[in-house]
Amino acid sequence: MEWVNETLVREFVFLGFSSLAGLQRLLFVVFLLVYLFTLGTNAVIIFNIVLDRALHTPMYFFLAVLSCSETCYTFVIVPKMLVDLLAQKKTISFLGCAIQMFTFLFLGCFHSFLLAAMGYDRYVAICNPLRYTVLMGHGVCVGLVAAACFCGFTVAQIITSMVFHLPFHSSNQLHHFFCDISPVLKVASHHTHFCQIVIITLCALVLVIPLLLILVSYVHIISAILQFPSTLGRYKAFSTCASHLIVVIVHYGCASFIYLRIKSNYSSSQDALISVSYTILTPLFNPVVYSLRNKEFKSALQRVVGRTISLPQH
User: Fold this and answer.
1) What is the tens place of the pLDDT at every residue in 245-260?
2) DSSP sequence for 93-119
3) How many other CB atoms are there within 10 angstroms of residue 99's CB atom?
């Protein structure tokens, strides 16, 4: 009962870019351009997949869902960050902070499990091509996405509830630009060792389980590809997996660096810099990797653009 007379924290103050006060307008312009380009490229991917029947396959269904997820993920963090770069008072309400944490955790966890589903899709396509349409029917694809949603929602609900049931009576200054787990835990009046262990364990499970599933899928994929008789066939099979592998490496690399070390020897500014990479740059990187490296996607985009241009002439 020592803290009964202390003031409850009703809002948090972001200090993520406070050390770069002279560069905040420049950062605003750069991040705004990157954000708009990310929204544009993801919109192109989604509309292209929806409008071209040749892309109505499980692989592109998952890609469309991934693009929607990326768009929502950036929407949770980037607009608020852009406003704060120009604002004198960089604050967020206690409830707003909880909602932001829950939403980005839900989408981040969903992203991890969705990448595992995409790995399974590549495994079936290469290792069991004759049964691909049966094993990866529309119902199965929707079921995998629903399972990823359920896992993401459950983990986000548990972590957010644990964090925001802690007492906040002292500092309200977050050395970050959004309500991430580690900076919010640091300003809690106190938290138990059990709470931290549970959070780290859940973060590890969200990263390790999907990653293990992806690794198992690719062990089978590589062994199957090596048995292909022609070099061209092996090249085509590897190329269909390359984009997914690149996205997996970037996603799990950044996420592991941040969330598998709640207590770290790294400075808050270093954490904020890494967070910029996976909240702003990675969502930009993913659609570019999938669209620019994919001849089938580019051909479909040309058809969609061609049909769109020819419509006014009829």
Assistant:
1) 888 888 888 777 777 6
2) EHHHHHHHHHHHHHHHHHHHHHHHHHH
3) 15
